[in-house]
Amino acid sequence: MFRGRTQAATVVDSLNGHRTDTDYIIRAEDVSKTYESETGKVPALRNVDFSIERGEMVAIMGPSGCGKTTLLNCLSGLDTIDTGRIWLDGTDIATLSDRKRTSYRARRMGFIFQVYNLLPVLSSAENVELPLLVAGVKPKEARERAMAALETVGLGQWTGQRPARLSGGQRQRVTVARALVTNPAIVWADEPTGALDSRTASEIMDLMRDLNERQGLSFLVVTHDAGIGDRCDRIVRMQDGVIAGEVAHDIFAQSMAVATRAD
Ligand SMILES: Nc1ncnc2c1ncn2[C@@H]1O[C@H](COP(=O)(O)OP(=O)(O)OP(=O)(O)O)[C@@H](O)[C@H]1O
Ligand SMILES: [Mg+2]
After folding, report:
1. Sign of the C-alpha dihedral, residues 250, 153, 88, 50?
2. Distance 115 CA to ligand 1 centre (A)
3. Which of 14, 53, 70, 149 is least crowded, fewest Cβ atoms below 10 Å from its Cβ?
4. How many whole angstroms separate alpha carbon 87 and alpha carbon 95?
């Protein structure tokens, strides 16, 4: 089973003691971001260092207002940073033009949010093919790929339904299909299961984990649900705009950590 870089490759890297820039899908160094609000300045991110390796599934957890969404938005280029540097696929995003950054986002990134963000007047297939049409893919190919993505998420029977006639879990499956249809390098998921009951949340997590393992898709999952966090490769904890700690779930990494402590 393909588990991205999280097991053998990570061990080899740690034995070698180094990684190269191309091992990371995203890397942020010393990133800070302050919002101006009516009540004054809000330091949402303070000197954050953070990275995701190719094929990794990382959870971000922490109390409301600690900066999780801000971090996701800054890393994905939806929002700008004040200071620091971010490398996307090895390229410093500050060196990319707005057009290139937008085009990278459309082609290489998928987004899943807590609210489904589906267009109510469009069917499942039409919602899913939209990012492809925006990226200039021909309608026939876009439709074929949308149908395949809906098949992947188990909605092959529901391609003609509008969102209002789908359950919450089915709607979130449509957004997962829409996120993966462009064949992205990374999917950003901000509380993807926040509006779902626990059983449906677990099914959506199974689906995302499966895509991660089978297709090597990297995921950043912001979540308040410890059960979701536990099923990611790593949990990064944030507090007051800083990264407060990290837990790796890689079994080998854990045994290495135990071995190191025993030394
Ligand atoms: N556009 C904005 N303008 C002003 N302040 C903002 C803006 N967006 C976020 N903030 C502030 O920045 C801080 C971090 O917000 P952020 O949305 O990143 O938190 P979060 O960890 O995602 O919280 P939640 O779990 O509630 O979604 C908060 O204090 C918030 O009020
Ligand atoms: Mg948030």
Report:
1. negative
2. 16
3. 14
4. 10
Contact 69, 62 (CB under 8 A): no
Q: Which CATH class is domain 1-89+225-263?
A: alpha beta
pTM (two decimals): 0.86
Q: How many residues does the chain have?
A: 263
Tell me how far apart the alpha carbons of residues 45 and 14 are, in angstroms, rounded to a whole number.
Answer: 28
Q: Are strands 40-53 and 218-222 parallel, antiparallel or unpaired?
A: unpaired
pLDDT digit string (tens) for 117-158? 899 999 999 999 999 998 889 999 999 999 999 999 999 999
For residue 35, report the distance from its CA to the centre of ligand 1, in Å: 9
- Residue of higher predicted confidence among 9 and 241: 241
For residue 222, the ligand 1 atom closest to its alpha carbon is 22
Atom of ligand 1 nearest to the CA of 241: 14
